Automatic annotation (TrEMBL):
Keyword Signal: no
Gene name tied to this protein: HSP27c
GO cellular component: cytoplasm; nucleus
InterPro entries: A-crystallin/Hsp20_dom (IPR002068), Alpha-crystallin/sHSP_animal (IPR001436), HSP20-like_chaperone (IPR008978)
Record CDD domains: metazoan_ACD
Molecular function GO labels: unfolded protein binding
Protein name: Small heat shock protein
Length: 176
């Protein structure tokens, strides 16, 4: 008996697992993903905390000395953390390390009061408090300057059907 007719007669002996329809119906294969647990795990791994009072980022920089680390803030609420050191001699040769991480702050964070701390175990903590409620929406009145009386000729084009002929009328506007 040939091998090809056997696989056609018995689907459980097929060459590909996709050919077996019983595998495709298993509940384990088609269970929905738990995206909430995945999101929580991603947030733990990247070291970002955002709550109602502050934004906080934890960066592992234990391979760098404090003078090799820079934290910068741009006008668009972007924090850039950079670390770089030149080639160092190691047991196996030379080592050169460099990293750049960028974080976008929420709009309601106060960039002026942002702080960064480096712990003794090499964890850099960047913290930006949120703005108080009264600072979030600031409405201020813009004063209007008066420059004096207006003496201006304004040309107005009037359509032909309203006046009977096409032309322009000059109206002199004076303010007293």
């Amino acid at each position: 008996m040939a091998l090809i007719p056997m696989t056609i007669e018995r689907p459980s002996w097929s060459l590909s697992p996709w050919d077996n329809p019983s595998i495709l119906r298993e509940d384990e294969f088609f269970r929905p993903l738990n995206l909430e647990q995945l999101w929580i795990q991603l947030q733990k791994d990247c070291g970002i905390t955002l709550d109602k009072n502050k934004f906080q980022a934890h960066v592992d920089v234990q391979q760098f000395r404090p003078e090799e680390i820079k934290v910068k803030v741009a006008n668009d609420n972007t924090i850039t953390v950079e670390g770089k050191h030149e080639e160092k001699r190691d047991d196996h040769g030379f080592i050169s390390r460099e990293f750049v991480r960028k974080y976008v702050l929420p709009r309601d964070c106060n960039v002026q009061e942002m702080k960064s701390k480096l712990s003794s175990d090499g964890v850099l903590v960047i913290e930006a408090p949120k703005k108080p409620e009264d600072q979030k929406l600031q409405i201020r009145e813009i004063p209007i300057q008066y420059t004096g009386p207006i003496n201006k000729t304004v040309p107005i084009n009037v359509p032909e059907r309203k006046l009977g002929r096409q032309g322009s009328v000059h109206i002199e506007v004076k303010r007293e």
